[in-house]
Design brief:
- The protein is an alpha/beta fold.
- The protein folds into three domains: about 5-65, no CATH class; about 90-100 and about 470-610, Immunoglobulin-like, CATH 2.60.40; about 110-465, Glycosidases (TIM Barrel, Alpha-Beta Barrel).
- It is about 25% helix and about 20% strand.
- The chain is built from 15 helices and 26 strands.
- The strands form six sheets. Strands 2, 3, 7, 8, 9, 10, 11, 12 and 13 form a nine-stranded parallel sheet that branches. Strands 16, 17, 18, 20, 21, 24 and 26 form a seven-stranded antiparallel sheet that branches.
- The two termini are about 50 Å apart.
Length: about 625
């Protein structure tokens, strides 16, 4: 078949593969490429056609003035596009003083932790009854970078429907394992449970107490036991209820146990939630005299699930609930929401799932517009936190989607974007069975204790925050390539953020979530973006630390390094340095440093006024 005739068949393929409007714009450009494209046989797959176009486009790059966006539009599926390996540099302008719209000061305890009630005992103690040094060291590896103390939330759906049994000798039942789901409706804890909190002596605890139950005596007993067992000085806040927007008149737990009226809460409205919250907090304050006066309670704690096939939960509206008087007693310390981004898929879903940066930013921006903006205007100083976060929902686990380099990069960018949009803290959830965990603390169900890929996001983010306590964060604009044309957009799926200390930029983070996975047979060469970053006057050198794996987005923890380091169970969670020597020191030339960021990689830049031996 002649190339022109075969091209005609491809040209009309499936209304251009479902991208008809895009094809209408780009087909004239494609027509000009047709003679140079080595078209596949008639029965070839559409992906082979795209690959052929990619190869021809890259060969023609030096001869054409067409912008890189043409290539992205042709070969990118969704916003997780694949960038060509050779493109002109993009420009990043860094305001010398704090960027307009920068965040408030970031708390040094921004990187928080959350544990499902029963799972916490496994993270805190080994099977032979000793403090879990592995967990201690991993938490220390994060908090030591900022100087903050770990803020740990203990809670979840299981304790909201759980019971405190004063005579129970076991700390928590049933025992959490890697292969069992949390037992909603049957979870019980005993007095010894709270002693496990002492294994993290510098931590402050967010203590969730039951509000799903209609039995106020249960709530009071739980609170009293926590205060006596943890010590009031080690409690960050008391949190009544878990995801009250999901209470239901027909809710059933594990095994079909009925967890609805009359013994448990039914569906709540803004009005009934405010009334119940006020009733439970008043009863707690009346019965537990050790609680301090003033702001000591977390409110809302609602579910906000976003993503493909997961509609947002029916939110209890922050503005409306405050108008109804939820804080009339002035006891609310912070407003909290939960966040899970979609349903976990398989390895092949990672590109269009977690690595779709535009979707992630849209969801966070929605939270910012809906709740954070109102709080900053009407209740300044009252923080908004995400105190239960996981990257996706899955009753069991899907490690190939939930715990690879791609998901760790999602987590790093998610934290950075949250800081820029005004989220005051993120508490990342851990459950023994969950696929999105940071680490597995003990051997369980045939799985060895181990550090998971997602952990690597945490030291990266902590280093970005730094230890000044005065860090402010702003997202930076990435300008177009190809000269000074400001109408040419920056690369898709790439974001840059600046950390300012005392109004001076000290660190820059860049996340490139474009999907590249060497575990795929047809991965090809690894693309990258090149950024020309305009740094403030006086900056002479830039250290570049990489969060990366040679396998790309599909790389597991054993292939990932950050700053050349790894953390393993064999090292008991302590940093193993020098595993990969990929940290660079670059010279600033004429106020610009040129940085290459590979697809499926994040980098952290430390700006220095000192001269060191660097490569230009």
């Amino acid at each position: 078949m002649a190339p022109q005739l075969e091209y005609g068949a491809w040209r009309s393929w499936g209304s251009w593969g479902g991208y008809k409007s895009l094809g209408d714009v780009l087909l004239p450009e494609l027509d000009s490429l047709v003679s140079q494209v080595p078209f596949p046989p008639p029965k070839a797959r559409p992906s082979e056609f795209i690959s052929a176009l990619r190869l021809s486009w890259m060969k023609m790059w030096s001869q054409t003035s067409k912008p890189v966006s043409l290539f992205l539009a042709i070969t990118g599926i969704g916003s997780a596009a694949v960038l060509p390996d050779k493109t002109p540099p993009f420009s990043v302008k860094v305001p010398e003083n704090t960027a307009q719209g920068a965040s408030a000061n970031i708390d040094t305890s921004f990187c928080g932790f959350a544990f499902e009630q029963s799972s916490f005992t496994r993270y805190a103690q080994t099977d032979d009854g000793k403090p879990n040094v592995f967990s201690q060291n991993l938490i220390q590896a994060i908090t030591s970078r900022t100087g903050g103390h770990p803020i740990i939330r203990l809670g979840g759906t299981s304790p909201d429907y759980g019971k405190y049994l004063p005579g129970q000798k076991a700390p928590a039942l049933p025992v959490a394992e890697q292969d069992n789901y949390q037992d909603v409706g049957h979870t019980t804890i005993g007095p010894s449970y709270w002693g496990f909190t002492r294994h993290f002596p510098t931590a402050k605890y967010m203590v969730q107490v039951p509000m799903a139950t209609k039995n106020l005596s249960e709530t009071i007993a739980w609170t009293q036991a926590a205060v006596h067992g943890i010590g009031i000085e080690n409690i960050h806040s008391i949190q009544p209820g878990n995801e009250p927007n999901l209470y239901s008149d027909t809710y059933r737990g594990e095994g079909g146990i009925e967890l609805h009226p009359p013994e448990y809460q039914g569906t709540l409205t803004n009005q009934t939630y405010v009334a119940e919250y006020q009733k439970y907090t008043a009863a707690i304050l009346e019965a537990v005299k050790e609680l301090p006066k003033g702001r000591f309670f977390t409110a809302f704690d609602v579910a906000t699930h976003y993503g493909r096939n997961v509609p947002p939960g029916p939110l209890l509206d922050v503005e409306r609930c405050f108008a109804l008087g939820i804080d009339s007693s002035r006891i609310i310390k912070e407003v909290s929401h939960h966040y899970y981004q979609g349903s976990a898929g398989g390895a092949s879903d990672l590109a269009r799932g977690l690595m779709d940066m535009a979707a992630t930013h849209r969801y966070v921006d929605d939270l910012a517009a809906r709740s954070i903006a109102w709080l900053s205007r009407s209740r300044p100083g009252l923080p908004f936190v995400l105190n239960e976060v996981g990257n996706s929902l899955q009753p069991r686990n899907s490690y190939a989607y939930q715990n690879r380099l791609g998901s760790a990069l999602w987590q790093a960018d998610f934290y950075l974007h949250c800081m820029a949009r005004g989220v005051a803290r993120v508490n990342y959830q851990q459950i023994m069975h969950a696929g999105y965990n940071l680490w597995l603390p003990v051997a369980s169900a045939g799985h060895a204790a181990q550090v998971f890929a997602n952990f690597y996001s945490q030291p990266f983010v902590a280093d970005f925050i730094g230890g000044s306590g005065k860090t402010r964060v702003a997202r930076l604009d990435i300008g177009g390539s190809g000269g000074d044309d400001e109408n040419v957009k920056g690369p898709a799926n790439v974001a840059a953020y600046a950390a300012y200390d005392d109004d001076v930029v000290r660190r820059i983070a860049v996340a490139n979530l474009n999907y590249w996975n060497k575990t795929n047979a047809d991965a090809g060469d690894r693309p990258s973006v090149v950024l020309d970053i305009n740094v403030p006057a006086g900056v002479k050198t830039v250290e570049v630390a990489h969060l990366n794996s040679p396998l790309g987005a599909g790389g597991g923890a054993d292939t990932i390094t950050y700053g050349g380091s790894q953390w393993t169970f064999e090292s008991l969670g302590k940093e193993v340095k020098g595993v990969r020597k990929d940290t660079e020191n670059l010279v600033v030339k004429d106020g610009v440093v040129r940085v290459t960021v590979k697809s499926s990689e994040a980098v952290l830049l430390r700006l220095s006024t000192d001269k060191v031996k660097c490569k230009p």
